[in-house]
Amino acid sequence: MGSRLTWALIGVLLLLLAGWGVQWFFANHEQRSREIVEGMSPLAKRNPLLAAERFLNRIGLDAESISGRDRLLTPPAEPGLLLVYRLGVSLPPEREQVLLGWVRQGGHLLITPQEAWDDAAQSSGNSLLDALGVHPQFVDPQPRDETPPADQTADDGNLSSREKPAPVLFELPATGDQIGVAFSARRLLFDSQGRADWTVETEAGAHLLQYRLGQGRITVIGDLEIFANAAIGEQDHALLLARLVGQQRRAWLLYSSDMPPLPQLLWRLAPGLVISLASLGLLLVWSLTRRSGPVITPGQAARRNLMEHLAAVSRYLWRTDQAAATFGQSQAALEQAWRQRHPVLGTLEQGERCQWIAQHAGLSPPAVERALYGGYQGEQAFIQVTAVQQRLAARLHIQEKTRG
Fold first, then answer.
1. Tell me: the pLDDT tens digits for 169-208?
2. Most buried of 147, 159, 166, 216, CB within 10 angstroms?
3. CB-side exposure of 277: number of CA atoms within 13 Å?
4. CATH of the domain at 109
């Protein structure tokens, strides 16, 4: 009974202590929220029109940002706004006509030039802009060797707002509302044929040219950076994008018109083929690690008979016309070796010398004389004489080992 009461008191004290700790913590700490800027997300770094897509979705449009040239080569089936952030090279003529047909049926194409007008080639680098009569001009309002004053540089190393282009004030043709957009002062447009239905221009040149085509429109802006992630929230850039969409209910924001890499294109068009080829490659690698059939034990190659070796060497020398010279050299070297090993041979005549060598080598005197001083007639005789020379050399070698 006493132990239960003791444990109950300990439990009550622990609860009181925990309650006091919680009360002390909240009495001495204040809850605050702090916003931490982590920088641009990987998706925003890859897609410069991500903010524009989310803005259009927020105002009730079905917007989609995509990459690749599919929407240029095969326009959507329904009308809408097709914004091409980087126009790229000219389309094939038949594909360009399909795209213009989509515009005539009510589509709105929003593009920007990538290259300046080339007077020598009489082209802007894109056949669609050439057909519209748009001459892009890229200028540099500030000399390249001129550095901005120190008071125009922000603390973080970027140019302050003084370096940003001043907004251009203009009225929207549909509503008459006046808006301000900070167009790039370095990229200007010139309507060489005077066909534009709506222009936004300054004394330096135009920043926006809009052309009507059938029931649709083509709008050319000097630089679409005003709709990028870092600029769409400034001035009236978002409002201009909304007004350009107009009554359209769909928008496709093409942030890259470059041809995707071959693996990515294959995966997009034929994922089943890619999976099959990858599986086949894995099976092939796995099959190379498996053994097929019993293990073959390496056998010992039988040693070749000396006479077979001599016969092969003799035939080779005979076929290459080296038999005579080699035979004479062998005779001289062999006789000199016997004389150096046995000085007594130097005092004997040729016949007596051959008898002495034959007696110590276990050969007949005629065979020794033919091997050291004679000749040969035919291939078989050459092989036989060469065999006797080999036996004389082997006998001399045995004698050297015995004396050593």
1. 988 887 778 889 999 888 899 988 888 889 888 888 899 9
2. 216
3. 8
4. 3.40.50
**Reported pTM:** 0.53
Give the Cα separation of 13 and 400 in Å (integer): 108
Residue 106 lies in a domain: yes
Look at residue 297 and tell me if it is in a domain.
no
Cα–Cα distance measured from residue 229 to residue 244, given in angstroms and rounded to the nearest whole number? 18
What confidence tens digit (pLDDT) does each residue in 325-350 have? 666 777 777 778 877 888 877 788 88
Inter-residue contact 368 to 295 (CB < 8 Å): no
Do 219 and 109 touch, CB atoms closer than 8 A? yes
Is residue 375 one of the residues assigned to a domain?
A: yes
